[in-house]
Design a protein that fits this description.
The protein is mostly beta strands. It contains two helices and ten strands.
Length: 121
């Protein structure tokens, strides 16, 4: 079993952008065979998601996640304004999970920080 890539993401509240999350080369086969890719963001304390788990942002292949070039080991996550606009500024736990039947592989996790908007609002 490999360790997931740890990645920090910062996004201004209400920003629209694509964030690329990295997948370990050890998980390349899982990425190629995944039937679903899930990116989720949770409230956290000390870098650990709060339980019970309730995603404040949830993306799938149908709702904002794409894997255009699996060989590049990158999963693109499309953020839209409503994903972060109403979230309090601060740190959240994020993770990227690959699903293939009953197999579940967490390939990336870390802290997502919602910051003040670029225009200072």
């Amino acid at each position: 079993m490999t360790s997931p890539v740890i990645q920090t993401i910062a996004i201004p509240a209400g920003d629209t952008r694509v964030e690329n999350v990295t997948v370990s080369s050890d998980d390349s086969d899982a990425l190629l065979s995944a039937t679903e890719v899930v990116f989720a963001v949770y409230q956290q304390a000390f870098g650990i998601p709060n339980f019970p788990l309730h995603a404040v942002v949830h993306k799938t292949l149908e709702t904002g996640v794409s894997v255009d070039n699996p060989a590049a080991l990158v999963v693109a996550v499309q953020f839209v304004e409503t994903d972060t606009l109403m979230l309090p500024l601060g740190n959240y736990y994020h993770e990227t999970t690959l699903l293939n039947g009953v197999a579940r592989t967490t390939v990336n996790h870390g802290i997502l920080t919602v910051t003040v908007t670029d225009d200072g609002a």
